[in-house]
Each structure stands twice: as structure tokens, then as C-alpha cells.
Amino acid sequence: MKKLVLLALGLVLIVGMLASCGGIPTKIRIATDATWPPFEYINDAHEIVGFDIDLMNAIAAKENLDIEFVNVMWDPLLAGMAQGTYDAAISSITILPDRQKDMLFSNPYYGAGQIIVVQKSNTTITGKNNLNGEVGAQLGTTGAVEVEKIAGATLVNYDDIGLAFQALMNGQVNAVVCDNPVAAKYVVTNPDDLKIVGTVFTDEFYGIAVAKGQEDLLEKINQGLQKVLEEGIIETLEAKWYTTE
Question: Residue 51 belongs to what H/E stretch?
Fold first, then answer.
């Protein structure tokens, strides 16, 4: 009898451990590369703020999720998600087939695309068709991928999109390619130095990345996302964070 009781207790413990492995973590670690205003960046008070941060907090509130943001550079963020280092990530992450091999994605929450920024005095680059010379982009982003496709353009990678824009203002590159909301933010912040040329030349959709094996968490995030989208949160956050010319 004693052996049977011990066996039963052992089975209960094993089932409990398996259930906890497949469930939602008590504290959910959300990775973000806080160098991408207005979506995620560090403010003057040294806080991680932005469009994506507000969106994720709203989702967490709807679904009673206990989250914490972890600021990590872009390449380690993608590697960390592939390795399961983080539970999820929100960082203007375009949903791409290659990324879907390494991580799960929520339903799309925002549409964006690549656009070109040049110095205010530049009159030779007017869009994608005559983009040439050295062009800055953030390493590992869709902007970098698109620059490599353009004949006559030489990609210069930067770990931080802010460094790419600084190089542009210093005359070290001819242009920067990045997501249009981010481009608009930098242009409005530096109106005497920068301008946008041409039109958006890609169609992309952002999603919240979730570590593989965290299907329960993905379901909760999608449920919360649907609720806040139905309440019009995108329009509210655009009014708060999205700066255009």
C-alpha cells in the first residue's frame, strides 16, 4: 500500500511538472530593442517607452499577464527568441517566413514599409530607383535586406538605427533606409538636416514574437490583442506616438 501511495504521489508531481512546463510563465519576459522610436526607445527618465510598449501593457492588462520588458540589441533579440531565452518580444518585428521558422507570431497589429531618408540638401536621390552609394540601415532588419537588393547601393550596417541617422547627418552615408514611422520621427526631430524622399516601397506587418512551445501564451496574447484592437487602440497610440511630416 505504501508503495502504491508513493507511486501515486510521484505521478501527481510529474503531471504537475509537465503542466507547468506547458503553461504560461508567472513572470513573462518581453524582449525589445529600445532604439527604434516611436515604437520603443529610452526616454529622458531612462524608461522604456513607446507605441509597442503601450500596446503590450494594454494586452497584458486585458489578459492579466505579469510582464517585464528586457532591453536587448536587435541581433541578440532574434537569437534569444530562437533559443527560448525570452518568452516573447515586441520590437517592430516584421512577420517573415524565415523568422517564423524560429519563433511563433501573433496576429499582425501594424502595417509599415521601407522608405528612404537623405540629407536636406540632397537633390540627386529622389527614391528607390536612383538610390546609390553607401546606404545605412540597422543590421538584421528588413531595411538592410532591401538595400542589398538595390543595384548601385552599398549597404552599411549599424547596430542601432540612431547611429545610421547620425552617420547620414555627418555625411558618412548617402541615405538611410528604415520603416516609415521611424523615418518620420527622425525627420521631424531634425527638420533642418533630413528629409524623406520617394514613397514607401515595401508592405510589411508587425507581430508580437512568442517563443516556440509557448502556444498558451500566444493564445492569450492574441486574445488580448483582439480586444484592444476592437477598442481602437491603434488610433489612440498613433495620436500619442506617431509623428509624421
Answer: helix 51-63
Q: Would you say the pTM of this structure is higher than 0.90? A: no
Fold of 26-111+206-241: D-Maltodextrin-Binding Protein; domain 2 (3.40.190)
Chain length of the chain = 245
In angstroms, how far is the first alpha carbon of the chain from the final one? 78
The segment(s) of the chain belonging to CATH 3.40.190.10 are: 26-111+206-241, 114-202
What the block records as the C-alpha cell of 176 is 538611410
From residue 209, give the alpha-carbon distance in Å to each of 18, 74, 123, 158. 23, 13, 39, 23
Q: Are 188 and 245 in contact (CB under 8 A)?
A: yes
Give the Cα separation of 230 and 59 in Å (integer).
Answer: 12
The one-digit pLDDT tens for each residue of the chain (245 residues) are: 434 333 333 443 343 443 344 589 999 999 999 999 999 999 999 999 999 999 999 999 999 999 999 999 999 999 999 999 999 999 999 999 999 999 999 999 999 999 999 999 999 999 999 999 999 999 999 999 999 999 999 999 999 999 999 999 999 999 999 999 999 999 999 999 999 999 999 999 999 999 999 999 999 999 999 999 999 999 999 999 975 43
The string of DSSP codes covering 130-197 is G--EEEEEETTSHHHHHHHHSTTEEEEEESSHHHHHHHHHTTSSSEEEEEHHHHHHHHHHSTTTEEEE
CATH architecture of 114-202: 3-Layer(aba) Sandwich (3.40)
